């Protein structure tokens, strides 16, 4: 078994009297897609926040690439290769796709935002941004203003922004939300193509996509992991079938 890229050890988070993350332990291996599923309010997004560093757990540890990062800030984790794909709201609608990704490349390279840059730097920035766009199948849309793109394309762009940060692990919170059937198909193919290069922790409600993509699945209920297993194990688990997913989604 390879060394996990991400390891959560006994994470616990309370909001007032409510325990939203309850002793969660799981791993993501290099090249693995580990999906976290569960009913609304189960604590999936709160878990992602604790991994990315926007929320501190009350107890437990987050270990990334062998380092204990529990006390690290969000930017420090991002620089170390833990990239969270943000909701579309992080995209600047008036900028082109290329400009949006170039901003992320610049953030990654640590230089401050400057409107007037030497031409050779600008060329390097654009080259890296273009490569990230190619990686998500948006190379031909580089010059298009983000605000005029389709929902699915914005999702692809959001992924390109995350990839521009040169991550080792991608945290994806409902990447298929709001996508139509064709867009979903395209995005699932894209995520599948990324899996070998990155570890992926995927939170997603679309069970068809989860079962098509995931190497392992953890089911979260009231903040607790009730089972972690392969897609087949999850599909055939009687409690999961009846209580958490709905029979129709398992067909
Ligand atoms: N900052 C907060 N303060 C208090 N309660 C919170 C806070 N954030 C989340 N919660 C509560 O924690 C629980 C888990 O929320 P969370 O958004 O993590 O669930 P989820 O599994 O992502 O849900 P969904 O599938 O609907 O997105 C919910 O009951 C929510 O109301």
Automatic annotation (TrEMBL):
Q: Does the keyword ATP-binding apply?
A: yes
Q: Which GO terms describe its molecular function?
A: ATP binding; ATP hydrolysis activity
Domain (ABC transporter) spans 6-247
Q: Identify the GO cellular component terms for this protein.
A: plasma membrane
Q: Which UniProt keywords apply?
A: ATP-binding, Nucleotide-binding, Transport
Q: Which SUPFAM superfamilies match?
A: P-loop containing nucleoside triphosphate hydrolases
Checking InterPro entries in the record gives: AAA+_ATPase (IPR003593), ABC_AA/LPS_Transport (IPR051120), ABC_transporter-like_ATP-bd (IPR003439), BCA_ABC_TP_C (IPR032823), P-loop_NTPase (IPR027417)
Q: Name one Pfam family in it.
A: BCA_ABC_TP_C
What is the protein name given in its UniProt record?
A: Branched-chain amino acid transport system ATP-binding protein
């Amino acid at each position: 078994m390879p060394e996990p890229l991400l390891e959560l050890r006994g994470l616990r988070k309370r909001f007032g009297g409510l325990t939203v993350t309850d002793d969660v332990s799981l791993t993501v291996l290099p090249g693995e897609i580990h999906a976290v599923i569960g009913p609304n309010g189960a604590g999936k997004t709160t878990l992602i926040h604790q991994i990315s560093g926007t929320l501190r757990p009350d107890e437990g540890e987050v270990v990334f690439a062998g380092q204990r990062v529990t006390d690290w800030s969000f930017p420090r984790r991002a620089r170390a290769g833990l990239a969270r794909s943000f909701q579309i709201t992080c995209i600047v609608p008036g900028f082109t796709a290329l400009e949006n990704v170039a901003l992320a490349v610049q953030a990654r390279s640590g230089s401050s935002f400057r409107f007037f840059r030497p031409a050779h730097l600008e060329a390097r920035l654009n080259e890296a941004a273009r490569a990230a766009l190619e990686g998500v199948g948006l190379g031909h849309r580089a010059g298009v203003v983000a605000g005029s793109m389709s929902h699915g394309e914005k999702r692809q762009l959001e992924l390109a922004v995350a990839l521009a940060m040169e991550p080792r692990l991608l945290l994806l919170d409902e990447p298929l939300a709001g996508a139509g059937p064709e867009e979903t198909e395209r995005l699932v193919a894209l995520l599948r193509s990324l899996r070998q290069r990155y570890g992926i922790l995927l939170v997603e409600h679309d069970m068809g996509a989860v079962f098509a993509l995931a190497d392992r699945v953890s089911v979260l209920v009231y903040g607790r992991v009730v089972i972690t297993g392969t897609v087949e194990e999850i599909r055939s688990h009687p409690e999961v079938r009846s209580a958490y997913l709905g029979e129709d989604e398992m067909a």
